[in-house]
Design a protein that fits this description.
By secondary structure, the chain is mainly alpha-helical. About 75% of the residues lie in helices and about 0% in strands. It has ten helices and no strands. It is globular.
């Protein structure tokens, strides 16, 4: 896993550097969804047959479709259409993945859909429109993936742990070159293919595996809620104005709940930690 993580970071840095050199800022919107698809292929080592059977197989096609659909509003300038699709996708994904349990436990699928919508809305509307805000969005999604990895592992899903870890590593590699001088776009493809793919992974673990620590998951959700609500107020209060310092504060408020969520999950499992 260590070698895989380093390889994903190095590959993402190389591709991101090439796009930065070519000044292909709009195309950087594809980096995070492609990172997710690459992590999925690496972990499961297959492209599922279509139509997919099983929740895990559905994840790939949700992310793939989201990436291609996201290209349309991104490169056509239809930003309102992009926002509508972004808000509809987590609902559709939760219902699609939770289809087998809709008859027996419809409220669980509905809860997953609403939770996914809330996460997507906070990432979408909780930040501004400047270039460094896109980097903060990407960093927040990377932290979310990293925070969900141990929760998935404790929920008896080692493959999901690997997928989230590799996706977080690749996202870090994509963003590291844009920390001080951002030239990165977190647009519809990143929402639908990257964050949407990650939310579909969470739907799979919650609705199908059904061994997720919901308390830890609720704490992890704060890593999406706290940064846009608190970080800018803190920066203004203590007089931080430089973009890099603001980013550090933002990520700190994202990392803290993610670390706490992992601790909560570990304490809830006690001696059953799956090592």
């Amino acid at each position: 896993m260590a070698a895989s993580v380093l390889a994903f970071i190095a590959g993402a840095v190389a591709v991101s550097a090439f796009m930065r050199w070519r000044k292909a800022i709009l195309a950087t919107d594809l980096l995070m969804p492609v990172s997710f698809l690459a992590a999925y292929w690496f972990v499961y080592n297959k492209i599922p047959e279509f139509p997919p059977v099983g929740a895990v197989n559905k994840i790939l096609y949700i992310a793939l479709l989201g990436t291609f659909v996201g290209i349309v509003p991104e490169f056509s300038g239809l930003q309102r259409l992009g926002k509508i699709l972004v808000l509809l996708q987590p609902i559709a994904a939760a219902l699609y993945i939770g289809q087998p349990i809709l008859g027996a436990a419809p409220l669980e699928a509905l809860f997953a859909a609403i939770a996914g919508l809330a996460v997507m809305a906070f990432v979408l509307f909780g930040n501004g429109e400047a270039s460094d805000d896109d980097v903060r969005r990407g960093g927040g999604v990377a932290v979310l993936a990293l925070g969900f990895a141990p929760i998935a592992l404790l929920g008896a899903s080692s493959s999901t742990f690997q997928l989230c870890l590799l996706y977080a590593a690749a996202s870090f590699g994509v963003l590291v070159l844009h920390v001080t001088k951002p030239a990165f776009r977190f647009g519809p493809a990143s929402y639908l293919g990257g964050l949407g793919g990650l939310l579909s992974v969470a739907d799979t673990v919650v609705l199908v595996t059904r061994k997720t620590d919901l308390v830890a998951l609720a704490v992890l959700a704060l890593s999406v809620v706290l940064p846009p609500l608190v970080s800018e107020r803190v920066c203004r209060r203590i007089g931080i104005s430089k973009p890099f310092a603001r980013l550090v504060v933002y990520i700190t408020f994202a990392v803290a709940p993610a670390a706490l969520a992992a601790l909560v999950a570990f304490l809830d499992y006690g001696t059953d930690f799956p090592v």
